[in-house]
Amino acid sequence: MPATPRKHIISAYLLAGLILIVASYSLPLWLPGDFVTAAYSGSEITLTAAQAQKVRAFYAHDQSLGSYMADMFTLKWGYSYIFQVPISELILEALPWTLVLMGSAHVLATVIGFIAGVEMAWRRGSLVEKFGVGGATVMAGIPELGVGVILLLVFSLHLGWFPAAGGKTVYADYAGCAQLLDLGRHLALPLTTLFLAYLPANFFLTRGSMVLILGQQFLETARVKGLPPVRIRYAHAARNALLPLATHFGMRFAFMVTGAVVVETIFAYPGLGALLFNAITLRDLPLIQAIVLFSSLAVLAVNLCLEFVYAFLDPRVRYVS
Fold first, then answer.
1. On the chain, which terminus has fewer CB atoms closer than 10 Å, C or N?
2. Number of domains in the chain
3. Dihedral angle over CA of 224, 228, 234, 235, nearest 10
4. Quick one: residue 314, left, alpha or beta (phi over 0 = left, psi -120 to 50 = alpha)?
5. How many helices (H) and strands (E) does the chain have?
6. Backbone phi, psi, residue 227, to 5°
7. Does residue 79 sit in helix, strand or coil?
8. Measured at the alpha carbon of residue 194, what is the angle toward residues 165 and 297, in degrees to the nearest 5?
């Protein structure tokens, strides 16, 4: 396979980044309604036409694309209409919550899905494999919304084992282990929801890759050499199944905002997904633009990192200066 110049890869990603900046500026402008209509509809406050016009003039979003790009590059993302604080503060406050939730769910689903996929592929045709594939198929058919609602109803509202909402107990003066336990109890249900939602895809992807690899000649050579089955299974076969799984992990992790919107909204978890949902609901245009741009650039950055991870996992992928 011919080597690809690194400068071509970087140039392509810079162009994609420019397109994403333009898209993050333009697409939110097409949302129907505005902040004034969304904020005051259904409230006890009734504005006259003249008052509504003054409020709209105050919140008028007349920023040009050029000034938007300049502000984005200097991290001057403006103020949120809803919260009246700098948008950068809101994102930095919500980002750790989403990273903990999404990172934990992705790592657990990837590791367990990888091990389960390797073991089930190695035991093709067995009763254990049939039960494993059947269970994963059932899990794959239940959407995140359904899983989240079921867990919320059973383990929070009915049994009362876990909190129903939030990321921590409000006004509680916890410290040390008590604080970690409180954070863990709030994290448990949304984390389990995402874990169960992501596990089947990792399982089937690994199992499918392993099934294709198990019939290749190099594994038979390893058996002839007398290598232990565990080493053949993981050091030789499973290593070659890592490339598609690494791609899937990177793409899933890159979409950390959009992937957490539903779950964070169900459990009122204070992450970027819930922040984006509130911004869209109330048409907070500057906040929507900033979160969309931030998440889009995160996708781009993860994909760029994956380009070089491929070269490590697959010797056929090579880059030159």
1. C
2. 2
3. -70
4. beta
5. 15, 2
6. -70, 145
7. strand
8. 100
In a domain? residue 89:
no
In this structure, the answer to whether residues 100 and 217 fall within a common structural domain is: yes
In a domain, 90, yes or no: no
Please tell me whether residues 174 and 271 are part of one structural domain. Answer: yes
Task: Tell me 14's DSSP state.
Answer: H
- Mean per-residue pLDDT for 301-313? 69
Quick: pLDDT tens for 41-57.
655 566 666 766 666 66
* Residue type present at position 116: A
- Cα→Cα distances 215→179, 203, 241, 245, Å: 51, 19, 13, 19
Evaluate whether 213 touches 185 at the Cβ level (below 8 Å).
no
Q: Could you give the 3-state DSSP secondary structure of residue 31?
A: coil
Q: Residue 251: is it exposed, middle or buried by C-beta count within 10 angstroms (0-12/13-18/19+)?
A: middle
Q: Are residues 206 and 220 in the same domain?
A: yes
Is the separation of the CB atoms in 254 and 299 below 8 Å? yes
